[in-house]
Amino acid sequence: MQKNEAYFAAIAERLRNEHLPEIPIQHEWLELSTLLSQMESPHLREIGLNELARHARQEANFRHAGSSKSISTH
What DSSP state is assigned to residue 19? Predict the structure, then answer.
């Protein structure tokens, strides 16, 4: 089990530090984060939950910025 934990943690660390291009890879990262958040390992679960929270914050900021732009242009 620890071998899998180290493997998934390494993947998460690498993806977290890379700038993700458009939707397909972001979607895959979101799926991986969701799977990690459901793992038995507290370490992997924490990584998954943190990444899901980070993604949610980014989406909220993106949507807020988009709505601010549309309001300010009228």
Answer: P
Domain definitions of the chain by residue range: 25-59
CA angle 14, 32, 2 (to 5 degrees): 70
Verdict on whether the full-model pTM lies above 0.85: no
Indicate the Cα dihedral angle 59, 60, 65, 67, nearest 10°: 110
Estimate the crossing angle of helix 42-72 against helix 23-37, to 10 degrees. 140
Output the CA angle 36-23-13, nearest 5 degrees.
35
The phi and psi torsions of 37 (rounded to 5 degrees) equal -65, -15
Please write the tens of the pLDDT for every residue from 23-48: 566 778 888 889 989 999 999 999 99
Tokens of 12: 């998460």
